[in-house]
Amino acid sequence: MQHRAVPVRADKGVAKAILATLQGRIGPQKFNAWFKRGTRLDLENDYVRLSVPNTFVARWIESHYQADIADAAAAHTNKKSPVVVTIDSSLTAELGRSQLDSQADIVRRAAQGGARPRTASRQPALRHSLEDFVVGESNKLAYSAAATLAAKADPSFSLLFVHGLCGVGKTHLLQGVCNAFARLCGNGKVRTWRYVTGEQFTNDYIKALRERKFSEFRDRYRRLDLLAVDDVHFLSAKRGIQHEFLHTFDAIYSHGSRIVMASDAHPKLVADLNEQLVSRFVSGMVVKIDLPEVATRIEILRRRAAAMKLRISAEVIEYIAAHIRGSVRELEGALVKLAAISALTRKPVDMGIAADALAEHLARTDSAMTLGDIESAAAAFFGITPADIHSSRRTRTVTVARMVAMFLARRHTQMSFPEIGRAMGKNHSSAVLAVQRMEKLIANKSKLTWNTPLGPKSMPAETLLELLSENLS
After folding, report:
1. pLDDT tens for residues 289-302?
2. CATH of domain 371-472
3. What's this model's pTM, rounded to 2 decimal places?
């Protein structure tokens, strides 16, 4: 009997050792800019896989560091393995603005004759403010609610839940609320606040459980005047942690304190979320942030280009804004690419350079919705991560989520079957079969079934697609 080969991944210790060797080869500045955050290294059978957040980073690493990665891996595996660079959109959140600045700076200096790049300055934990949030039709209600909750001594509401696709400004708003509230605290009153992600809250809870320090954990959270929780959908399917968060929520809310949360999906669309939590979340102000419209995109590009000290005409900015209709991160990524090409060619960014440089990117993002948006929405609904969709896992839940994401990608984007397959780490036929199966389920009015920690769950395929499409629109 033949057994199917199972990918062998390097444990964290080996991967860490390989990355340490790589840092020694290329230097700490370049390593910090390109590898420290937003990348993941795995050893799978006979090759080295490096996952990165976007095409620009992938191409730069392939052009400049592929041999260094192979040599670093060989030093710890005693064999020379090919290096495969893949794109994993779930890593985008780790690629902060400070790293984008650092990468662009390295490219500029390389074009100027290899001058040593400066070390990127450390950003404060909460770098965003409400003052530098670009307000437009897509987000003005969310902004107004956030500003009211943060700045008024006695706001008319104390609970705000904002939701929307990745990269539309949810984190910016939450951090801005915290910074504005900190200034409010200076009016002769001592008030406490905390900004955490759903993952950080989970880690704090696990640490308290392990060290038996629940009293300290509860004192740290339940006596706050403001609690801001980003990526609250991370609590999905974690029953024990949801139970603790429910009591934390009730303790803060009962004292009249303020709570602001953010998620990729509406509370009712977050998979395996305690019904008691859902009912509490929707009892406050629930506001969706949409993708920025053209006027907002122009202003975002203008401000970001000024911050990068990138000389770019209003005509080029309008061209980018007209054609890239996705998230703020996509807009920033386009500017970083143009800055890199401008530095390498030593020419200012004009319409010709912009059109040539962004041609492939524009072809993939010519709709208002991207594959990354679809993957994030599907992952939140099924209680997994976008990385799971890209993985080789074949559990029922991951398989269903991947099939749904592929179908929605064909429906809402201009990506071809090969492009969808490659983007998800699969092949052309996988995308074709996924779409065909979904079409058959819809035609037969059949249900999709998947597993949750609370047992199997099912829903008509057409109803599920409508829910996700509504959340994406």
Report:
1. 988 999 999 999 99
2. 1.10.1750.10
3. 0.60
